[in-house]
Amino acid sequence: MGSAKVYKREFCGSDCLAFKTITPKFQSFWHTHQEFELVYIESGHGKLQYGKRQQFYKTGDIFLLGPWVPHEFFENSQYHVSISLLFNHNFIMPGFLDCDMSKNIKRFLDKTAFGILFREKISKHEIDIIQMILEQSGLDRAITLLTLLNRLSTFQHDNLLTHNTNQQVRLKEFAKIQDILSFINKNLHQKLSLNGVAEKFYMSTSHFCRFFQSHTKTTFSQYIISQRIEKACYMLLHTDLSITQISQESGFESISSFNRAFSKLTNITPSKYRNR
User: What does pTM read for this prediction?
Assistant: First the structure.
């Protein structure tokens, strides 16, 4: 997440991740991922860019963001503390959200395509649950997360980050951009051409460019570079692969193009990023 200092970051398989970020000045990369993300702003204020829309945030806010919707946080205060929970549909078990007993949670999570802000309705009890999830692991974490989502699903969801008078059209657009971003992120290690991806999704190149930039606020090529650098950042910190191998795994054609793009986006070289 940019240059943010991560105070605590635990990986619990691939289904539920919880971490706390503490930094004097925070800005995340413009990024996307396949998981739902719940973010609690413990301290600080700034601006969230979520798809096409911007939302100012303050201490105490909770955001629930949908899969594959590009977003970025810009901190305007001098001190930022947040807790992030990332989880996929199968954080309890495959098919759980399709059960009748969890239908309310499933309907609730469907609304995350629009992004949800919880503000005045949040009590100390919800905050305590989030803090508990941060300290837990395994099944205990998943069960507590389910408890939190069940509570939040009972709230009125009037404060959506994006709005459209035709909700079905909006959901269809979100589904399409999510499919496109999912495809790109699963194939970052391969050569991706604008014409090729547009054709795969049955769109003309010009229509694809307008559609993509409208939903991501960036160009196709800029998005791919940012995601490849994000992937490289993870591998630099969490693998023993050489920088040359990482550049190849991230989809760069040469080590020189990788170094140039990495330094431009992060203001630091890959070797310094790994050893900082």
Answer: 0.64
